[in-house]
Design a protein that fits this description.
The chain is built from seven helices and five strands; from the N terminus they run βααβαβαβαβαα. It has one domain (2-129): 3-Layer(aba) Sandwich (Rossmann fold). Helix 1 (12-21) runs parallel beside helix 3 (35-45) and helix 4 runs parallel beside helix 5 (87-99). The longest helix is centred in the last third of the chain and has 13 residues, at 87-99. The protein has helices at 12-21, 23-26, 35-45, 59-68, 87-99, 108-120, 126-129, and strands at 2-7, 30-34, 49-52, 74-78, 104-105. It has a five-stranded parallel β-sheet, with helices on both faces. With 133 residues, it is of the alpha/beta class.
């Protein structure tokens, strides 16, 4: 499966800790991320991660395009609900995920449910939607 990781500045460390905790599960999948988040996760976990631009430089749009082309199977976007910075970027990715039936987590609790489901095979239906080439 293709998994996208994004995190606002105040949530990057939480994303890193989450990925360390679930490194064993994530290792079996293709991971992409916005630049800073991806670099931090790759350095902490050793996971290979395809990097896109930083969020403020268009990384959200790059990942959004991959969602629209059905190239992303799961999105984990840890956003800081206390900040006024770009809630529209979160809303836009959430809208795209809804439109294309891509599971989306905006916090660690939901992300854990999705990762556990991924581990159990609950998301295998995505292989029908997005067959491996």
């Amino acid at each position: 499966m293709n998994i996208a990781l994004l995190a606002h500045d105040n949530k990057k460390e939480l994303m890193v800790q989450f990925c360390i905790a679930y490194c064993g599960i994530l290792a079996g999948h293709n991971i992409c991320a916005t630049n800073t988040t991806g670099r931090l996760v790759a350095e902490a976990t050793g996971l290979p991660i395809t990097l896109y631009l930083s969020c403020n430089q268009g990384g959200n749009q790059q990942i959004g395009a991959r969602i629209a082309y059905n190239e992303i199977d799961l999105v984990l976007f840890f956003w800081d609900s206390q900040t006024t910075d770009s809630p529209n970027s979160v809303n836009e990715l959430a809208r795209l995920c809804d439109q294309y039936n891509v599971p989306f987590a905006s916090n660690v609790a939901t992300a854990e449910v999705l990762i556990r489901g991924l581990q159990r095979g609950d998301l295998d239906w995505r292989d029908i939607v997005n067959p491996k080439k």
